[in-house]
Structure formats: structure tokens, C-alpha cells
Amino acid sequence: MTRVCLLLSIAFIIIFITPEYAKAHIDISPQKGEPNKWGVYSINVPTEVESPTTKVEVVIPAGYEVEAIGSKEKWSFSTERDTAGFVRKIKWSGGNIPPLTFEEFKFIAKTPAKTGSFLWTAYQDYEDGERSNWNFQTLVKEGGDSKESASAKEALSKAKVATIASFVAIGVTVSLIIVMVIAILQTSRREYE
Best exposed site among 3, 47, 87, 154 by fewest CB in 10 Å? Predict the structure, then answer.
């Protein structure tokens, strides 16, 4: 009985859950930024199922301000705005992303004034009528990514040390040259005397 339950559980996972995870996911780049900064965002949309992607819809989190949407050959886009007039949804349609390929959709936006994690939702429609929902996050943080800031500070510190070491080496070299010139001049004087 236990073996039958285990086999049925495995079969359920393979049949119903695995196909959803086998599909690729939509993601965004960059995923991190500082408050109130303009940048170009890229939505990467792969098709890893047998049916081509025919429509992509991205829900923009409140606080982000979309300024312009990149033009793509064979794709048209439409937008939905909130009551304040900000773009909250971008829909691309009319194109086709064949299986095992991807497209990149771009737009210019400003990050929110407040810091925090922001949830994005994307919908991917396929030619066969199926639809996938994807969630991904962006992080808005003062000073950007702390790991990047720390590594940048470390690199700057090492560069300062290297610069000081270079100046010390140059000073030592110049001093040795002066000492050698003096030694040569003194040896030359002694020979003439």
C-alpha cells in the first residue's frame, strides 16, 4: 500500500507539476537599483515549450514611472494607466517567440522614491491557448547593492595602496640613482687627484 501511494505521488508530480516548471520564466534586468534613478529595463521572455509565445503582459509595480517603451519589429504594444496617469501594465502582441528562443522587451523607467522590494507579475500567452504567470522582484535600496558597494570600496582601497606603493618605489629608485651618481662622481674625483 505504501509503495502504491509513493508511485502515485511521483506520477502526480511528473504529470501535473513538472510541466509548469519545465516552462522557462520571464525575468527582468536590472533587478537592483537606487531610488529615483532612470534606467533601461529589459524583460527577457524565453519559450521553452512546444507552442510559441504570442503575447506578453507585464504589470508594473506602483512607484515605478515608465517613460518610454522600446519598439520591436513585428510586435505592437499597448498600455494601461492608473488614475494618476502612470503606466501600470504593458502588453506586447502580434509577434511570435518560437520554441527554444527568447525575445527581450525594453522600456525606460524611474525607480520608486521609496526603498524596498517590489513584486512584478508577467503573463505569457502561447499559441495553443495556454497561459503562464510569473512573479519576480526588484530591489530599490540606497547606495545600490551592498555587496557591489563593498567590493567597489575594497577595490578603491587596494588601488590607493598600490598607488602609494608605486610612489614609494619611484622615490626609492630616484634616491638610489642619486646615490649612484654621487658615488661615481666621488670615485672619478679620487682618480684625478
Answer: 3
Cβ–Cβ under 8 Å, residues 110 and 63: no
Assess whether the previous peptide bond of 30 is cis (omega < 30° from 0). Answer: yes
CA dihedral sign, ordered 179, 185, 189, 192: positive
CB atoms within 10 A of CB 51: 14
pTM (2 decimals)? 0.63
Nearest to 39 by CA among 120, 112, 114: 112
pLDDT given at position 34: 95
Q: What is the DSSP annotation of 11-38?
A: HHIIIIIHHHHHS---EEE--EE-TT-E
50's enclosing H/E stretch is none
Cell numbers placing 28? 527582468
